[in-house]
Amino acid sequence: MENLWRGIKKLQFSGLVLLVSAFGLGETGFAAEKFPSEPVRIIVGFKVGGIVDVRVRTIQPFLQEAFGVTVVVENMEGSGGGIAANFVKKQKPDGYTLMAVQMPNATALRYTMGQKFDYVKDFKPVYEFSNKDNNFISVRADSPVKKIDDLVKLGKERKVTVALAGYGTNSHIVAAMFAHAVKPKQMVIIPCTSSTESMMQVVGGHVDFCVTSTGGAVFKMVEEGKVRGLAIASESRTQSMAQVPTFREQGYDIVLEGSYGIVAPAGIPAEIIKIIEKAFDQATRNEKFIEACNKQGVVSAQIGSEEFTKRTAYWQDLVAKISVQLKESMDKQ
Fold this sequence. Notes:
By secondary structure, the chain is of the alpha/beta class. The protein folds into 2 domains: 36-132 and 258-323, Bordetella uptake gene, domain 1 (D-Maltodextrin-Binding Protein, domain 2); 134-256 and 327-331, Periplasmic binding protein-like II (D-Maltodextrin-Binding Protein, domain 2, 3-Layer(aba) Sandwich). It is 46% helix and 22% strand. The protein is built from 13 helices and 10 strands. Strands 1, 2, 3, 4, 5, 6, 7, 8, 9 and 10 form a 10-stranded mixed sheet that branches. The radius of gyration is 24 Å and the shape is globular.
């Protein structure tokens, strides 16, 4: 009789396990089935109106539609994004708290702001939703520097000054890559608050050259002939600035196409990552989002977690190789 009762209990337990499996009620399966059932927060480590904030708020309504719940953009500025990163790192990896990042800018802050975050180990790269944010070197239209080789020659002869949008930015990384490649006598950075301000330093004759992004007011200054583009750090010439040759065309292996993505606290379940990827896939394919990206000088992208993780690791390695130039360009002010 006792053996019969044990057999019945075993069958009951087995049936319960099968029921749980069939309806996805395991720990991660249950979480994935429910996600998202409440608002999703995207933390931005920079001020409202900044470039990362603008990119996130551009996709926010389309992402909200894809998720079916409210998507809240929350700014937590300070320490070059460090306050936000430290906060998000400590959050529960349930998909409800995410962080927007600009790459490879975020990886450079280890050297320019003293941050110790590893964006592959401390976080999980989830999705890259926009990219091709290119930077280029330009000089004033009446400058005797006509091509990038002229600037290299000038840098060998004397100290050169460059305006760019702050330390640790993608424009700073491109400047450091340039210094790493050509080793000028001395390159002094004049930090500005934006690419537009950097360009005005060139137009005003206050610096030898500048490194800026290609969008907005900067593009207008090139169109109006106020500045001359010498080299762009993209894989190929861009449609908006077809007259500006790439670094590679001119014999310099300098390529950095900035991007914008989302990371989560380390340990986020794979099932939830798939749901987030699906929502971003839908949002980034929306024609209105694609159009908005084009107006901002970037393109919509569909790069999931696996590939975004590989790209983030690559950027971390690239920035580590030019870390000396990043630090030196700050120390020589």
